[in-house]
Design brief:
The chain is built from 17 helices and 25 strands. A hairpin with an 8-residue loop joins β17 (565-570) and β18. α10 (288-305) packs across α14 (431-444) and α14 packs across α17. The chain starts with 14 loop residues before the first strand and ends with a strand. Bound molecules: alpha-D-galactopyranose and zinc ion. Alpha-D-galactopyranose (GLA) binds at residues 156-157, 277, 279, 315, 321, 353, 363, 366.
Amino acid sequence: MKKYDPINPKAPQFLHGGDYNPDQWLNMPSIIDEDMRLIKLANCNAMSIGIFSWTTLEPEEGKFNFEWLDDIMDKLHKNDAFAVLATPTGARPAWMSQKYPEVLRVAPNRIRNLHGRRHNHCYTSPVYREKAKVINTKLAERYKSHPALLIWHISNEYGGECHCDLCQNAFIEWLREKYNHDLDALNKAWWTKFWSHTYTAWDQIESPAPHGELYVHGLNLDWKRFVTHQTIDFMKNELEPLKRITPGIPATTNFMGTYKGLNYFKFAPYLDVISWDSYPQWHVDKKEYLLGSDIAFVHDLNRSLKGGKPFMLMESTPSMTNWQKIAKLKRPGMHILSSLQAVAHGSDTVQYFQWRKSRGSSEKFHGAVVDHCGHENTRVFNEVSKLGEILKQLRPVIGSTVDAEVAIIYDWENAWAIDDMQGLRKEGRDYEATCKMHYKAFWDLSIPVDIVDMESDISKYKLVIAPMLYMIRGGIDKKIESFAKNGGTFVATYWSGIVDENDLCFLGGFPGPLRNVLGIWSEEIDSLHNSETTGIQMIEGNPLGIESDFEACQLCDLIHSESASILAQYKDDFYKCRPALTVNAFGKGKAYYIAFRSKMDFLTRFYTTIAGSLKIKKAIDVELPLGISAQVRTDGIKEYVFIMNFTNEIQEINIGKKEYYDFITRSTINNKLSLESFGVAVLEKTTNP
Ligand code: GLA
Ligand code: ZN
């Protein structure tokens, strides 16, 4: 395990700050001066600026106005804060849409958008690319030596797709290259004989459309791949002047969790640091720990995108949002807990949307550090400032990472294919939710997990879990075989090994290329109505030592064991006594197959047993009450254990005999840790066992 450098070694502290829009307040200079005072008071040190400033920066085509930004950059520097400086392409000036309509995005129905909103440019348009390059070049030239410049924030939440003629042509060019100019190869990959969809010329191909082609799954998949490719291509165009002029300034673009429109794994190599915007809807019911686990999954995904490198929590709300159904306030303690949760999973920053509530337009009621009252005497400001103090204490944690022995495969292309397929059930296929359920078993056990995709290297883990691996791509079948052969434990579930990377079914028996390693043949799969369940009975004396019965719901795979041993069987229906859980010895390792969709109780028992037998490391080797999560970051020498209370009650936790230093209370503790409702402790072991 290594210790990573700070995101920019110029700032070896935790970055704390938020999206700052001083351009909305330029006619009220006293507000900006007040911001500077408040930034310090809030213990903030990194402000994201310029995200939507294009019109202020270039009010007329080719006429630039940087004075206001010079002033802000200088003021930030004078006040010991850094700039996370954005390129402004997330929204564009009206003059540009008016003069060059090609920059406007075309919807899947082929209707061109009017000017408005944001995030709606055509990512192929040469005009838009050129305009982006010009403004980015100017920004880089102007601020390359400015001491406040810390990180480039590329655009904002790239997303969506454009179906204009320029994009159609680019799509066809991309396909030509992908299929080596062989249209027949494309027709075969897309199985276009079906419904007479065969293409006889490249220019017959169009992007999927609600009033056109929608049911050629290979086309849909390739279109999604193209959208990712083209967005990255647009981003590379944005990055070019920045990397050329300011090679030492790291660049990131803010992701949106598991947003389905873009495969974030493909972006990672082009970015110096990963960042994401996290908006969990806390306090919907009393079960914060269920959401806590789901968000932890996404933090782990973001850390895993660059192989464990610390990431940035680029946006989060200090209080509420303005777009969720109910704008509920974060309860006292939740802001610090949810922010430190990101840190526990590998974030080296805590940043917000937004610094100050705007006065007008659609985000004026979105949570902010500074409210419309304008002063610091608010509950939210106090929590933010207190968190800033805590982050200062946590400085030794910077650059440490998470050493996971377990990986869960969560793959974007697999998600696309499962969502697009017609079969099994229309609703509740729940690929992502299923991955998160498997994850939760480990979250409950305080076991660190990486979230990887099919292109990732899995050889270093002890346990690899691939829920619903419907599609097989990226050579994952071979990687799984050699992983198991070399002693790894692999777990697959129902609905795996069904199609190849073009969404073409494997012939000769499912789970296709995983059949050998799993030692089973899946003959059919039964979909149950939501009100139905089927019993699962563990086989007496099974080597897992699990005795209880369980329930299957929604999906029951009807398999035959070929070389696997049967650990559990169905109890009901016409498949009574057919295998429901198997394990196949493979080389030095093992491959389990869970044939049914289970509830949490089964996953908890199953993974507790497996993790125990593999001696998988926990963040802290004690049993924690329900709703308490422990995570650990390490730099190879020191370990920082975060213990987080996702319940609304005070919790007394037995942390064992070892002695720890608590960074938050700045005291030494052993045996007992008391955590307030939504409380957190960050511990470092002070003695060796
Ligand atoms: C996104 C955007 C921000 C803001 C927030 C509101 O994350 O990037 O500009 O609109 O949502 O929650
Ligand atoms: Zn376009």
